[in-house]
Amino acid sequence: MSKRKSDEATVLDHASVHRRGLMLVLSSPSGAGKTTISRELLRREPNLTMSISATTRAKRPGEAEGVDYFFVDTTTFNLMVNRRAFLEHAHVFENYYGTPREPVEKALAAGQDVLFDIDWQGTQQLAENARDDLVTVFILPPSTRELERRLHARAQDSDDVVAKRMARAADEMSHWREYDYVIVNDDIAASVNAVQHILAAERLKRDRQVGLGDFVKALREGQ
Question: pTM of the prediction?
Fold first, then answer.
């Protein structure tokens, strides 16, 4: 084989290696910063898309079908549960929420990474259904006092609601050991950078390189 043909074969083989996408989960107690980190990640990472949940709650003004949520009735939702069409689902404040499996699978197969902003219970379900595709990050506040300050600074909730969120935070933080990575969010920019480094490393993992075995085989055979 001429050098030119050999070079062309190597290029073709290398082009056949492509990456399967991953599911990136960010979890934290309310106020620790996961939503802010998520928004900045989506702005910085063009290959990262936010997962879209199905819900039985009513559409709010300004929301769009297939953009903010997939809006379904309770009967349809339950049928989807029975068909195992969700990667995870939950009942929250009289409504149902779930992550449809099919659009996530399509994104992963196309090499697209999918971001999830969910709690530890949803993360456990994802781990049961798709552990090989999953990368989980738990965001901790730098202190309890700072967490409470942030909740009050948002001015979104009453003192009673803040107190309930603080009470729930201790239980939520007890699940930190279940996550692949833990970040103490003392500085948003540093935390976003840390998650980007995690993404960069996880994207290069051997098992996510589809076709890599055949490419290495071809290299060993001198192609």
Answer: 0.84
